Amino acid sequence: MSTIFLLMLSNVFMTFAWYGHLKYGHDWPLWKAILISWGIALFEYCLAVPANRLGFVQFSGFQLKIIQEVITISVFIVFAVFFLKEKLAWNYLVAFAFLGVAAFFAFAFKAPGSVV
């Protein structure tokens, strides 16, 4: 559970690092947007690295990545609707549903043993 929580927090930071400047940073020079984004992303890495280390005990690398992608899109949907004030269209929901199907297949069947 701590892996999921840490990945959720790290994705909040990364979403703001990558996309936050789209709302308020239009007048910033590119170098400023990059430096601010790097500063925010540092916190993301401080959460994502331990999340993956802790999670690798319980999940495979493939499963960790799929969990991370589902969390990323979930966080981004909330961010886009509430922060960027974008409309959530049906095709985005269908795309999200397909990611849910991918997550199902990643966890529903026993994977072959680890190579490590």
Question: Can you give a write-up of this model?
Answer:
- It contains 5 helices and no strands.
- The protein has helices at 2-19, 21-24, 30-55, 61-82, 90-108.
- 13% of the residues are buried.
- The model has no long low-confidence stretch (mean pLDDT 90).
Q: Any descriptors?
A:
116 residues; mainly alpha; 5 helices; 0% strand; flat
Distance between the termini: 24 Å
Q: What percentage of the residues does DSSP assign to strands (E)?
A: under 5%
Spans with pLDDT under 50 lasting ≥5 residues? Answer: none
What would you call the structural class?
mainly alpha
Total beta strand runs: 0
Main sheet characteristics: none
Helix and strand run? HHHHH
**What is the mean predicted local confidence, pLDDT?**
90
Judging from the principal axes of the Cα atoms, what is the shape? flat
Q: How many helices?
A: 5
Short description:
This protein is mainly alpha-helical and 116 residues long. It has helices at 2-19, 21-24, 30-55, 61-82, 90-108. It is flat, with a radius of gyration of 16 Å.
In terms of topology, how is this protein built?
Blueprint: H1 2-19, H2 21-24, H3 30-55, H4 61-82, H5 90-108
